[in-house]
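Problem 3 from the worked examples.
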Amino acid sequence: MGAQYYGADSENGDRIDDPSEDALFMMVSDLNDVDNTFVVVQPDEDDPVWFASVAVSDEGGYEIVRRDTTRNEHEVTTATSINDIARDLTIWMAARDFPGRPTRQVSEF
């Protein structure tokens, strides 16, 4: 069974379906500058409209790319804290649209 919403794939062939923040932390921690230089997270579909990637930067740290064509977003940043990267990606991905996912309901008190 594939991912319900999205999958994370690393250059070395590791894959995690619907990764948690902890799983993203592990995948980024496993990156190196030799044979596992990036992780890509995107919907598990043929033509995904968004993706996020984390790559080892030549200057040290990581380059993070977030792209969502439905929202006309394209952001490239750098970071050194794997904890911050995993948290920020988890929050960013939670705001993406997924077919079949229940919509959020906001109630007024």
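Problem 4, a separate protein:
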Amino acid sequence: MSAPVFCKRCLYSTAHPLGLTIDDEGICSGCRVHEEKDQLDWSARFEKLRALVEPYRDRAGRNYDCIVPVTGAQDSYYTVHVVKEKLGLNPLLVSYNKYFNTPLGIRNLANLRIRFNCDILSQNVNPLSVKRIVRTTLRRFGSIYWPILAGHTVFPVQTAVRYRIPLIIWGAHQGLEQVGMFSHEHEVEMTRRYRKDHDLMGYEADDLLSIFDDLAEEDVGQYRYPDDAALESVGVRGIYLGNYIRWDPKAQHEQMMSSHGYQSAAFPRTFDSYDHVDCFNYMDLHDRIKLYKHGYSRVTDHATREIRHGRMSREQGLALVRTHEQRPLVWLSQFCQWLGINQRSLEFILNQHRNPQFWQEGSPGDWTFRGWSTLQAETSETTFDPGFRVTSTLERDGLRGYVTVGKGWGSETEDTTKEIE
């Protein structure tokens, strides 16, 4: 396998799992598409969005205008803000229960529903089935997150068919924002194919069934994508707001923190305190697995995004990556207890998924990392404050452990913008 080629502007390389190209000037396709953010007429594009959603407005008031998938983090607040407060639509919110919920994420999700005064449907798949699936996906292709990605991307579509609500509105498209797989002007929409190839690592629900496993059809049934006939009978389509709005997660999160009480928390493995505060494992064990498999982790994604938005230099971003990417895990024992596996056994499984392009084993158990951050020139940068505010903690109110189903929170009297020292 040839050595990865790095973009001269950001921190991505040609080894990116979503696919990325480098042009003759040494700039990657993701950076080139990002340039559109400063070139497109976003006022005109928002009016195009307004015209696109108008036919879906239920003027009789008998049904919801659209579906919006939400969690207790990511782009949920800003997406609902645009849909309800700028487009004036009446959305049905849908949320897949990931079972790795933090108390802060449950609080943020409850606050989202209350602040925007929206109805919400939550899906709780049998936790025994979820654990069986995680054991399978962990062993077969090194993923603890397959059921979460599958559930989050299929439950909104299933709900659209069941309630005959054609329009699903998502936030930003990962392939566009990260690697420039599409242009904003392509106005790409959510598809079964993209979900399988990229979100689900090439595996649909039925692909998990095997005579060598204990999974049964009833375990994977909730993750099946509706068939084409069902989709066509309703006219289901999923659009991405990122095609019509200049997407900037840091600015958008800070706007929602100020106006709608979104709360953030610090992570050892990245400087971004805004994303994924709803999950104990995304920026912990899941992030380490990403480093094992692909030679880089989520902090590289965060630094690349901030470099592209002009808020840090490439050298500052690389220094932050080297500071955070090898930080120890905090919540590993909690995951092992949930899955019923000891840490030594888990590490044995994970080692089977280390990419030999980026990891070399000397003596047994002694691994040397040769990932993305080690393949680039040294930098004189040592410290840099990227300017992310921390307003809470994952274990909000001192609650420990996964929150399977949260009771929600009522009106808050605390100062939701107070920073944690």
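Solution to problem 4. The chain has a mean pLDDT of 93. The chain is about 40% helix and 5% strand.
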